[in-house]
Design brief:
Number of domains of chain C: 2
Mean pLDDT of chain C: 85
Order of helices and strands of chain C: HEEEEEEEEEH
Largest interface: A-B, 101 and 107 residues
CATH architecture of the largest domain in chain C: Sandwich
Shape of chain A: globular
Helix content of chain C: 10-25%
Number of domains of chain A: 1
Number of helices of chain C: 2
Number of strands of chain A: 0
Mean pLDDT of chain A: 93
Chains: A mainly alpha, B alpha+beta, C alpha+beta
Largest sheet of chain A: none
CATH class of chain A: Mainly Alpha
CATH topology of chain A: Cytochrome C Oxidase, Chain A
CATH topology of the largest domain in chain C: Ctag/Cox11 (Pfam 04442)
Order of helices and strands of chain A: HHHHHHHHHHHHHHHH
Oligomer: heterotrimer
Number of helices of chain A: 16
CATH architecture of chain A: Up-down Bundle
């Protein structure tokens, strides 16, 4: 370390109160900020989901008007994707990557500070649209024109908020790449890196490649509305379907941005509690890379119904089905890791096992959706809603919760309450399946998504789903309680924390020193 | 946890298999995709069952291995963990086998897709137009043309009345088609993107403004089939159902004749002079299907979004301005132009209704002939 | 921190920024690229909206194709718009003429732009127009009705399996677009 950097950070350690958090350039502080923001947004987005499930509890309009209902689905998606899941992963990257690769901090600490502090502004802007004339955006998170052009005063704010989130993600991703490429301890070769680091490296490349695409697409929406361009306006020679192509060119890799770090987390947790090395480390790395590559050539499977020529539909169907191969490899590897291990079932392991099972169910429905001739039936129904909630809630969110239980003792120096943790897992798992499994049936029976009211034949499963939804929502308050209780105090955690824990982060004290590895460790 | 999971998966699988070919769309707890009433919907259903069974098969193997591992390889049983962590042979095997399974599924899927996209040699072509929030149908050959709107009363939606059997899936004028004829739909939209979907016909297609999309079906069973718009299209996306009535050839021919008769009756009706009561009565029906979604049944609108008509300057001002606004809409707002969607009689009636309802007692009225002159 | 590390970090930073920059350009390059892709593959069923030379005009009389005409107006604009005939039977390679009739029903002059769309999308590549009202904006004074000619040819490369081609025009209100 140069004296200059030491000097900088030295100053910060003396800052107290609010200013410490506003000016911090420390990877752990910023990681904490990201995770807290993510938890807050998870609650806000969750509250919106409760509104949605309350309205759908029975047929008829009870609580909200259709326009506001559409705002809720739109905002729920934007908040959960950009506010809850992505910041949680960036927070975990901040906390863990330097500790895992033997670095003192992230490579670009000031950039790190900016990339976080943009987010509260972005979400304040986004949430403020709820109070604007014409209401919050209600055209769906995909913002398809021409519908999105009917957004009221909220329109430019929506675009601006998306731009800010994009800039934040790009800066965060750049930081991750620069850190991983340059800050590894001597001996930490690429193929020795923990899988969490690998998956994040690949995710970061996906981010810098696709976020500019989203930013470009929404910029075109903005100029179409305010500056007379005709990118997506058929009257001026534009094409609204082109927006969908551009959006999903971003959107499909985005799906993997939301799941690859979860793969990484699960690949850390399962070996630890199986007391056995991860099976097929290198095939895991290659599988992740192939998923990332394939994610760029399958986008149009989100648009099978727009009327593509047969050859286009066939190409996107085949390419999409192909993704099942590397994804399958990952699942088989996880199961093989458990095989003939010596397993224990602490909360993080429970979440990881829940992830493997329920993510795989989401993968199965994904494979079904890939089949274009049947997708004409599934498309835009609750079957799709069930599918992506299985991969995003019981996939990404379960992995994030598992990661929280796994590393919280390391971060805080306190053990969480194992009984409450297990209770949280079981309540979540039962309620989330009551919530989302019936939605498969609803979709197959013909219920379209994004509708505030439905025909009476769908009443039974909607009621069950809503009950599951409320239970899942309430259960997450328990999670908040457990996390804050652990931060406040608890049984002292050892440095190793878990018997089978393996990796550099477990060689540090719990909680770790302010600068993770001031002296680079030697990796054999 | 796994026990539960597997149990749940198996129960669902068993239930689905039991329901193979015997689904009832009206059942309260329908589990599976409909087999439908067209060759395409049956094809989709067969493929759906095939891939579902493959997934369940893989699921049983994977979750089974995991389950055995969880039961037997746990530390509490005092096992020593093995240390193996790779096996090239096994890894190649589970890359190749899934790939072959996928190829096996891609072949029937490709065949089905080719059949679905073959819209050639249709017997009847119907142009379908998506409007916010109703469907328009134009029979290309017979010239029959009408708008099909939600027929469910607002009272049912707002829980003031008992919900009917086909709540939200009923329209004022259904699309009528003959059975055993290849019907080709030419789908487009007037404002934003919609999607035309009737599950039992096995296909959905987006309706995109400025573009034309095609799909086809050949229904082999007389009956009434219901569906909904499947692409988010704004406020009343959930309230623009589709009803298709499939009739035998004779009944269909009769329907076509009736429609042509109705069109000429409507023409005659437009030529006579209507009384105020007649206009108001007809106008109320038109208002409820075409206007009440935004301006509300009580004419009070929605503050900040849709203006009130009760006591408004337009509805109590000069009659010509009022009529012109209804006919041509207000650019840049949600107020659509109704000249193409409503007939002379309907336009005259709805304007007359608006000028004489909710205490807007202007007293004047618009005759169908006035509308014709204003066109 | 050594000088080397600073240098290395800067190098990585440059390459990531380069990717961000290239992708930002790429998204705007997608607009013309998409146009080219559609012209080549008929991805979106948009026929070329400009006069095309019809080189070989000897018709292939062994084959007939049905051409259907549809007319719509967007956002319920107050125009009547219809094809003069609903369908024609043509031979590939044969130059044919038909027309569409439009009337401005509103009380003021309006400018419309007709946008063509062909289904199936693949046929768009093989649907050639030498004269069309869709090439330019059309101004109609209040109450004006006009018959507008369309001269077209379905070329002989039209794939064998396509026997019906639908040509749909949608009139868009040009002023509304500019507003």
């Amino acid at each position: 370390m140069t004296t200059a950097t030491t000097h900088d950070t030295h100053h910060e350690e003396h800052r107290r109160g609010l200013m410490r958090w506003i000016t911090t350039t420390n990877h752990k502080d910023i990681g904490t900020l990201y995770l807290l923001l993510s938890l807050l947004m998870f609650m806000v987005g969750g509250a919106m989901a409760m509104v949605i499930r309350a309205e759908l509890f029975e047929p008829g309009l009870q609580f909200v008007e259709p326009q506001f209902f559409n705002s809720m689905t739109t905002m729920h998606a934007l908040i959960m994707i950009f506010g809850a899941v992505m910041p949680a992963f960036v927070g975990l990257a901040n906390w863990l990557i330097p500790m895992m690769i033997g670095a003192p901090d992230m490579a670009l600490p000031r950039l790190n500070n900016w990339s976080f502090w943009i987010l509260p502004f972005a979400f304040t802007i986004l949430l403020s649209t709820l109070f604007m004339d014409g209401g919050a955006p209600a055209g769906g998170w995909t913002m398809y024109p021409p519908l999105v052009m009917q957004t009221g005063n909220a329109f430019p704010f929506l675009i601006f908020a998306v731009h800010l989130m994009g800039i934040s993600s790009i800066m965060g991703a750049i930081n991750v790449i620069v850190t991983i490429v340059n800050m590894r301890a001597p001996g930490m070769t690429m193929m020795k890196m923990p899988l969490f680091v690998w998956t994040w490296l690949i995710t970061a490349y996906l981010l810098i490649a696709t976020m500019p695409v989203l930013a470009g697409a929404v910029t075109m929406l903005l100029t179409d509305r305010f500056f007379d361009t005709s990118f997506f306006n058929a009257a001026g020679g534009g094409d609204p379907v082109m927006y969908q192509h551009i959006f999903w060119f971003f959107g499909h890799p985005e799906v993997y941005i939301l799941i690859l770090p979860a793969f990484g987390i699960v690949s850390q947790i399962i070996p630890t509690f199986s007391r056995k090395p991860l099976f097929g480390y290198s095939s895991m790395v290659y599988a992740t890379a192939s998923i990332a590559f394939l994610s760029f050539i399958v986008w149009a499977h989100h648009m099978f119904t727009v009327g593509m020529p047969l050859t286009g539909e066939l190409f996107f169907m085949y390419a999409t089905m192909l993704i099942a191969v590397p994804t399958g490899v990952k699942v088989f590897n996880w199961v093989s890791t458990m095989w003939r291990g010596a397993m224990t079932f602490e909360t993080p392991m429970l979440f990881a096992l829940g992830f493997v099972v329920m993510f795989t169910i989401g993968g199965f429905s994904g494979l079904m959706l890939a089949m274009a001739p049947v997708d004409f039936q599934y498309h835009d129904t609750y079957f799709v809603v069930a599918h992506f909630h299985y991969v995003l809630v019981t996939g990404a969110v379960f992995a994030i919760m598992g990661a929280t239980y796994f590393w919280l003792p390391k971060w805080t120096g306190h053990m969480y309450n194992e009984k409450l943790g297990k209770l949280h897992f079981w309540l979540s798992t039962i309620s989330v399946n009551v919530l989302f499994f019936p939605q498969h049936f609803l979709g197959l029976a013909g219920m379209p998504r994004r509708i505030p009211d439905y025909s009476v034949q769908f009443a039974g499963f909607n009621e069950i789903s809503s009950i599951g939804g409320f239970a899942f929502g309430l259960t997450q308050l328990l999670f908040v309680y457990i996390v804050f209780k652990t931060i406040a105090g608890g049984e002292k955690a050892t440095d190793q924390v878990w018997e089978g824990a393996y990796g550099l982060e477990w060689t540090l004290s719990s909680p770790p020193p302010y600068h993770s590895f001031s002296i680079a460790p030697d990796v054999k | 946890m796994l026990v539960n999971k597997i149990k749940r998966t198996l129960t669902a699988a068993a239930a689905m298999t039991a329901l193979l070919g015997a689904t009832n769309a009206a059942a309260d707890y329908a589990l599976n995709l409909t087999t439908g009433v067209t060759p395409i919907s049956r094809e989709a259903h067969t493929l759906h069952m095939l891939i579902l069974e493959v997934c369940i098969g893989i699921g049983v193997v994977v979750f089974g291995a995991m389950f055995i591992s969880i039961v037997r390889h746990r530390k509490s049983r005092g096992v020593q963990p093995a240390q193996f962590h790779e096996s090239t042979a096994v890894e190649i095997l589970w890359t190749v086998v899934p790939f072959l399974i996928l190829v096996g599924m891609a072949i029937p899927a490709t065949k089905a897709l080719v059949a679905m996209e073959d819209t050639s040699d249709a017997d009847i072509s119907i142009k379908v137009t998506g409007y916010q929030w109703r469907w328009g149908y134009d029979y290309v050959d017979s010239g029959i043309s009408f708008i099909s709107s939600l027929a469910t009363p607002k009272d049912q939606i707002y829980n003031k009345a008992e919900k009917g059997e086909h709540y939200l899936l009923e329209v004022d004028k259904p699309v009528v088609v003959p059975v055993n004829k290849k019907v080709r739909l030419l789908i487009t939209a007037n404002d934003v993107i919609h999607a035309w979907w009737v599950p039992q016909l096995g296909m959905k297609k987006d309706a995109i403004p400025g573009y034309i999309n095609e799909m086809w079906f050949k229904i082999d069973k007389e009956g009434t089939y219901r569906g909904q718009c499947a692409e988010l299209c704004g406020k009343d996306h959930g309230f623009m159902p589709i009803v298709v009535v499939a009739k035998n050839e004779a009944d269909y021919a009769q329907w076509v004749a009736e429609q042509k008769g109705t069109a000429s009756a409507e023409k005659q009706a437009a030529q006579r002079t209507w009384s105020k009561d007649e206009l108001v009565a007809r106008g109320e029906t038109v208002y409820n299907t075409s206007c009440a979604a935004c301006h509300q049944a009580n004419g009070e609108g929605v503050s900040g979004a849709f203006p009130a008509l009760k006591g408004s300057a337009i509805a109590t001002g000069p009659v010509a301005d009022h009529l012109a606004l209804v006919m041509h809409g207000k650019p840049g707002t949600a107020m659509a132009a109704f000249a193409n969607q409503l007939s002379d009689v309907e336009l005259a009636a709805v304007v007359t209704f608006e000028r004489n309802a909710w205490g807007n007692n202007v007293g004047d009225l618009v005759q169908p002939s006035d509308v014709k002159a204003a066109r | 921190m050594s000088r080397n590390l600073q240098e290395a970090k800067r190098r990585t930073l440059r390459h990531t920024l380069l990717i961000v920059g290239l992708m930002s350009l790429f998204v705007f390059a997608l607009v013309p690229l998409y146009g080219v892709l559609c012209d080549v593959t008929g991805l979106n069923g948009k026929p070329r909206n400009a006069p095309q030379r019809t080189v070989d005009i000897s018709p292939d009389t062994s084959r007939t194709v049905t051409v259907e005409f549809l007319a719509s107006v967007n956002e319920s604009m107050p125009w009547d718009f219809r094809p003069s005939v609903a369908r024609m039977t043509v031979h590939p390679g044969q130059v044919r003429q038909t027309s569409f009739v439009a009337r401005n029903r509103s009380a003021h002059a309006m400018v419309g732009q007709a946008i063509p769309s062909v289904s199936p999308g693949l046929a768009a590549l093989h649907f050639k127009k030498t004269e069309c009202f869709c090439f330019t904006e059309q101004k109609f004074i209040s109450g004006e009705e006009r018959e507008m000619p369309l001269v077209f040819m379905v070329d002989k490369d039209l794939p064998e399996h396509i026997s019906t081609v639908t040509l749909a025009y949608t009139f868009f209100d040009k002023q509304k677009v500019v507003d």
